[in-house]
TrEMBL record:
Its EC number is 1.1.1.-. NCBIfam families: PRK12826.1-2 (NF009466). This is SDR family NAD(P)-dependent oxidoreductase. It comes from the Bacteria.
């Protein structure tokens, strides 16, 4: 099989980094995307040191112009895009009465608008070639969480975006799917307060956090050329938390 080109947003850290590293060990040319140049270059170097192929593109994917420039760079370097993993994300938890307009806007821009912008650019390319795999990283938190109305709304928006685009691209050879992680041990998760973590741990059926690799494994499934009949789906990687009612933190 020919090497495929995989664009992974937010791959300078955490879950995205793990996806980039794992894809770099497989049959993929990897485009590492984020704002932090030092971390981006370090990940590209480690992929190349392992015999893989990768570039880093610095991009704030919440900005339309930067997204367009990102995909122009990918086309000029590798000529195509086969896989898009939308993973860039952040969190700013506040009770609703303390949530400022910018807390809402910033989270929605990074977590949801960037997915729309990258999907738009990727689908233009994928539609032409009649092939593509899009994997959107949502969160179990889309089911609801106290002091997370901005984050939950952005992650719920990702599920709706995924389902809508799955229908829109169903006859284009493109699949669009979603992974909804629960607590995964990354720098983002480590931002949570001790109180939040202990509450979630008590509500966690397995009583432990997951690793980024648990998410990567599902991303790989959705990215596989052979899995062409699965689209518009959400797979939870959360140790069973989604089975419980939505929780407060
Ligand atoms: N960890 C968890 O427990 C958990 C649970 C559910 C869902 N998730 C989701 O999983 C995804 C990855 O999270 P993580 O835990 O791996 O967090 P992380 O370690 O903090 O990584 C977040 C990544 O997003 C990138 N990013 C943030 N804003 C960006 C922007 N404007 N433009 C481009 N890149 C941007 C960061 O890169 P730069 O700093 O270089 O820009 C970084 O690479 C997120 O969508 C998150 O919501 C995580």
């Amino acid at each position: 099989m020919e090497e495929q080109v995989a664009v992974i947003t937010g791959s300078t850290s955490g879950i995205g980094e793990d996806i980039a590293v794992k894809f770099g060990q497989g049959n993929y040319k990897v485009v590492v995307v984020g704002r932090n140049i030092e971390r981006g270059n370090r990940i590209v170097d480690s992929i190349k040191a392992g015999g893989g192929e990768a570039i880093f593109v610095q991009s704030d994917v919440s900005q339309a112009r930067e997204c367009e420039a990102l995909f122009r760079k990918v086309l000029s370097t590798y000529g195509t895009v086969d896989i898009l993993v939308n993973n860039a994300g952040t969190m700013r938890n506040r009770p609703i009465t303390e949530m400022e307009e910018e807390d809402w806007d910033d989270i929605l821009e990074v977590n949801l608008k960037s997915y729309f912008l990258c999907c738009k650019e990727a689908i233009k390319i994928m539609k032409e070639k009649g092939y593509g795999r899009i994997i959107n990283i949502s969160s179990r938190g889309w089911l609801g969480g106290t002091a997370q109305s901005n984050y939950a709304a952005s992650k719920g928006g990702i599920v709706s975006l995924t389902r809508s685009l799955a229908l829109e691209t169903a006859r284009m050879g493109i699949t669009v799917n979603c992974v909804a992680p629960g607590m995964i041990d990354t720098p983002l998760h480590q931002q949570s307060t001790e109180e939040e973590v202990s509450f979630r741990m008590n509500s966690q059926p397995m009583g432990k956090v997951g690793t980024p690799r648990q998410v990567t494994n599902i991303v790989e499934y959705f990215a596989d050329e052979e899995n062409w009949f699965t689209t518009g789906q959400v797979i939870y990687v959360c140790g069973g938390m989604s089975v419980l009612a939505s929780l407060s933190s």
